[in-house]
Design goal:
The complex is a heterodimer of chains A (245) and B (356). Chain A has eleven helices and six strands. By secondary structure, chain A is mainly α. In chain A, the strands form two sheets. Chain A has a three-stranded antiparallel sheet, with helices on both faces. The termini of chain A are far apart. In chain B, a hairpin with a 6-residue loop joins strand 3 and strand 4. Classes of the chains: A mainly alpha (245), B alpha+beta (356). The interface between A and B is large, with 67 and 68 residues.
């Protein structure tokens, strides 16, 4: 009687065809277990982000990727797939919409806020963990989706710009104020001027940094990705005209 | 009546249903009588009779509130009771109970006064005011807590079974290796679709799970139809992320995973569809119309750049109505082939015809 499935030792002795048959039977059994689980707890997954985390971690531990395919059991019966794949679409759209401004780099916080806004107030809740998992899946499609650890959280990169350790470290330095200067880099990172300029130039070229050459003292390199909602806001062309000296 | 798992039961008796309460009266001792307000019932369900088991109705109750009348069970760990119908009457009772629970006649206000829940009023057991709201929130919280711990338990059990499936698939993979690839096409396809269903990486080839299954072939065909017009509109090329959004927005549900999309696109060539998946040096992945050949793209890039003297990706993008990302890739391609050269400064990346 199969109570817990067939043991590995027994399998080794069997023929391939037989084992395949066993597998097909086990698949059916598993499917019905999953169906039962879904009928009881599908709502939990939808509503409870903590539960989702637990679920994902357990799957990872046993070597299963519930988000690999929309055709997988997990996706079909628990609806986890649609949740994350749709989130993927929303993430891509937000990043695309802001790329002209931040060059393809955005804080996880800002991404989170904007995705939530886009989903509307009646949509189910989305946690930062959910975003991170959706982004990991997006990597499969090329296009440079990546996450850079900065200031206790992450910057989400959505363009294939080459960012090595030097660039990352400068981004981390700029995180506190939203901008950085050559002197600051030299002081905190002990780099020479040339190396500092090289890195900053690259960030400028990739559209990730803007140069404020009119700043008091020395030029400041600002990172739009790090502008917070509090210290910046979008300005209409009229307002801009009134502001320029 | 059973208390779940406790098996302490009140044995033989008669259950009576009123518009407000459920009453149980001992068969022998008519003095022994207990009652339950219908408002305490969250929901109820039938349990069919089986061999050695009588038909039952399971009644799920709200947690005890502070104003509960004294009774045989002041508190209980178990929020269900079961009524066991040893002889008959279950069907009729269930129907009547459903009726009463739907109509909820105990909630209809009694004409005299609005009263808060008091001990002896059987009619108005619905609490009002802030206290009532707080109680409801607490009820909900306890309910949720219980649901969640049950869910976690069930989840752990499910994972144990899933792990068995993973191990089984590894055993099969080992067998396939031992056979040195002597396995039928049919078995291979079936094995791959199991892996896909379970979300297990193919242990034999380590390739992305499920590539080459029937599912992906079907998808490839669908994409072949669906993408022709959008591709034409966009100069014959679309970034894969753009395709992902387009396709999933159109579907609305049963969405594709990123990997599904990639695996389906990989099959374009073998299925002789007029599309190709292409990966640029930068890592950008695109779907392009096969009809838009490489030479054409490079020639068009060169023509445009020569025409304008020089172009940046943004300018080129505007000219052709392409995304900046893709126009950059085309310029890079033309450069790679030696037709363009670059001027890379902080002001931007600009391409010129290569006169060298």
């Amino acid at each position: 009687m199969h109570r817990r499935g067939v043991g590995a030792g027994a399998i080794a002795k069997k023929k391939l065809a037989e084992v395949c048959y066993i597998m097909s039977k086990q698949i059916e059994t598993f499917k019905s277990h999953l169906e039962e689980f879904a009928s009881k707890h599908k709502q939990e997954i939808r509503k409870n982000s903590q539960f989702r985390v637990q679920f994902q971690e357990m799957c990872a531990t046993i070597g299963v990727d519930p988000l690999a395919s929309g055709k997988g059991f997990w996706s079909e019966m628990l609806g986890v797939g649609d949740f994350y794949y749709e989130l993927g679409v929303q993430i891509i759209e937000v990043c695309l919409a802001l790329k002209h401004r931040n060059g393809g780099l955005i804080t996880l916080d800002e991404l989170h806020q904007r995705v939530l806004k886009g989903r509307g107030k009646y949509a189910q809740d989305v946690s930062q963990d959910d975003l991170v998992r959706a982004i990991k899946k997006l990597k499969a499609m090329g296009n440079g989706f990546g996450m850079i650890p900065v200031g206790g959280s992450y910057l989400v990169q959505s363009v294939p710009a080459e960012l090595n350790m030097d660039h990352t470290v400068v981004l981390q330095l700029a995180e506190k104020k939203g901008y950085v200067t050559v002197s600051e880099i030299k002081e905190h990172l002990k780099w020479e001027r040339e190396r500092s300029c090289h890195v900053l130039d690259h960030l400028l070229k990739e559209g990730l940094a803007w140069l404020d050459s009119q700043a008091a003292g020395e030029p400041q390199y600002w990172l739009p990705a790090l502008f917070s909602e509090i210290s910046s806001r979008d300005v209409t062309p009229d307002e801009a005209n009134q502001m320029t000296p | 009546i059973y208390q779940l798992k406790n098996n302490a039961k009140l044995d033989v008796g008669v259950v009576l249903l009123t518009t407000h309460r459920l009453i149980w009266r001992d068969h022998k001792n008519h003095e022994c009588c207990i009652a339950l307000s219908l408002s305490q019932i969250i929901y109820f369900e039938e349990q069919a009779a089986g061999i050695g088991k009588s038909a039952k109705i399971v009644i799920h109750l709200y947690p005890v509130t502070a104003n509960k009348e004294p009774g045989p069970y002041q508190q209980s760990k178990f929020p269900y009771i079961k009524l066991s119908f040893k002889e008959h009457g279950q069907i009729e009772f269930f129907r009547r109970l459903t009726e009463e629970m739907t109509q909820k006649r105990w909630e209809t206000p009694v004409p005299q006064t609005i009263s808060t829940a008091t001990g002896s009023q059987t009619g108005k057991t619905r609490a009002v005011g802030i206290v009532g709201i707080e109680r409801k929130i607490e009820q909900k919280r306890k309910e949720t807590e219980q649901n969640i711990s049950e869910a976690f338990e069930d989840l752990s059990q499910l994972m144990v079974k899933a792990k068995e499936m993973v191990e089984l698939s590894r055993s099969i993979a080992n067998k396939i290796k031992d056979k040195h690839g002597d396995i039928t096409e049919d078995e291979t396809i079936r094995f791959k679709s199991y892996l896909l269903s379970m979300g297990i990486a193919n242990p034999v080839t380590r390739e992305t799970h499920g590539s080459g299954t029937n599912y992906h072939m079907q998808l490839a065909k669908q994409l072949g139809d669906m993408l022709l017009a959008p591709l034409e509109e966009r100069g014959g090329m679309m970034a894969l992320t753009e395709v992902y959004c387009l396709v999933n927005r159109a579907r609305g549900m049963e969405l594709l995973s990123p990997e599904d999309l990639v695996n389906a696109c990989k099959m374009f060539e073998s299925m002789q569809l007029p599309l190709r998946l292409r990966v640029f040096d930068s890592g950008v992945m695109v779907v392009q119309l096969q009809s838009h050949s490489e030479e054409e793209m490079i020639a068009s890039a060169l023509d445009n750049v020569t025409d304008k003297g020089s172009l940046t990706s943004e300018e080129f993008a505007k000219l052709l109505g392409l995304s900046v990302l893709l126009s950059k890739e085309r310029l890079l391609l033309a450069e790679k082939m030696g037709h363009l050269c670059r001027d890379d400064s902080v002001e931007g990346l600009r391409f010129y015809p290569n006169l060298f």
